[in-house]
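Researcher: Structure for this, please.
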Amino acid sequence: MLQTSGAALLSLLASFSGSGDWPQWRGAERDGLSHGVAWTAEGREVWRAEIGLGYSAASVADGRVFTFGFDTATSEDVLRALALADGKELWSARWPGELRANQHEGGTLSTPGVAGELVLTCSSSGVVRAHRVADGSEAWRRDCVAEDGVDPGYYGFAGSPLVADGVVYVALERACALEVASGALLWRSERLGFLYSTPVRFAPGGAERLAIFGQEGVELFALDGTHHGRFPFKQDERHVNAATPIELPGGELFVSSGYERGCARVDFAGAAPRARFESKAMRSKMAGGIFLAGGVFGFDEAVLKALDLDGNERWRVRGLGSGALSGGDGKLAVLSSAGELVIARAELGGFSELARATLFEEGVCWTPPPIAQGLILARNNRGTLVCRDHRASGGVGPT
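Model: Predicted structure, C-alpha cell format:
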C-alpha cells in the first residue's frame, strides 16, 4: 500500500464531509455520475489495497470505503471497511463463499449499498446481509434461496442492492423489497426468470416506479409491489440482460444488451411502455453506460460509443476492450479492460481525450470506477483497488 504524506492525509481528511459520496452501485443518485464536486483529468495515486477476487465496485460514505471480495485462501466472501484517506482496513466481516469458475475467474459480483448506519450486501448465492457501519457486526441476514425459493442458476446472482427511503430492493429471480432496519419482507414478486441486473427506481409520469431488467424484458412495479406491465426485450435463450438501465429525462429508460441484441429508448410515462427507437448501435454486455451532456455514453461490445437521444452514433473509439465507465463534471472516467484509466470530455461532437494512466498490469477491469469527492477508485478482478486523487482543489498535479 502506498504511504500518504502527513500534509496530504490531513488535506484528504478535512474534505471528507459526506458531500459527494458514492454510497451504492452507480452512486448517490444511482446514475453512474458524481454530483456537486469538481474533479480534474490529471491525478495521482494515493493508495492501493487488496480486497479479494471479484467485480464488485467500491462504495464510499462518510470517509469510509466499503468493498466486497472473495478470499481464495479461505474460500470466504469478505466485506471490508477501509479508511478513504489512506486505504487502511478498519474492519472486515467474513462468511463462507463460493467460487464459480464460470464467472470469468469468479469472485463477488454485487456492490455494497450504504444506508445510514448499515451497509448491505447481496451474495451470488442469494443471501442479503446488513452489517453495522461502525464495527462490521451483523445486524440481520436473509437467505432468499431458502426463504423465497429463488434459484441462483448457472451464473449466480449479480445485481446489487438498491437502497432508498429505508427500503432495500433486490432482484433475485423474484423482485423483493425489504425494510433496511430489520430485513423484514415488505413484498415479493412472482418469479421473473434469472436476473443479473440491478433494479432502477425512477418516476415516469411523476409516479415512483421500480424497473427490473429481467430475461424477458423490463418489468415495471409500483413501490408497493403492484406489477405495472413489461417492455419485452428478449432475443433467444442465450440472451442475457445484465446492464443496468439508464434513466433518461421524461420518465424514459435506455436499455441495452450484448449478444447482438442491441438497445432501446423506452417511454414508460403512458398507459403502456413504448419504444422510441430500437437498434444495434449499442450492445452492452455488463455494467451499462451513463447519460450525460445530452447523450448516452457506453460500450458497444468492445467499442466505446456516444449516442444521441435519437439513437444516432456520434463517435466511437476502439482499443479499450470491454471496459466500463462513470462520469460527472463534464467528463468521462473510462477504465479499459486492460487497466488503463482514460479521462475524456463528455460531449457528442467527438472523442476528446484529456489524460491517460495505466493502473493495472494484470487481470481484467470490467467494473465502473466510482468517483467520490474527486477521488477515483478503480479495481481489477484480481482484487487490487486503486484510489487516485483527482480533486480540483488542493492541487495534486499530474501523475
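Researcher: Any notable elements?
Model: Helices lie at 6-15, 144-148. The first helix runs from residue 6 to 15.
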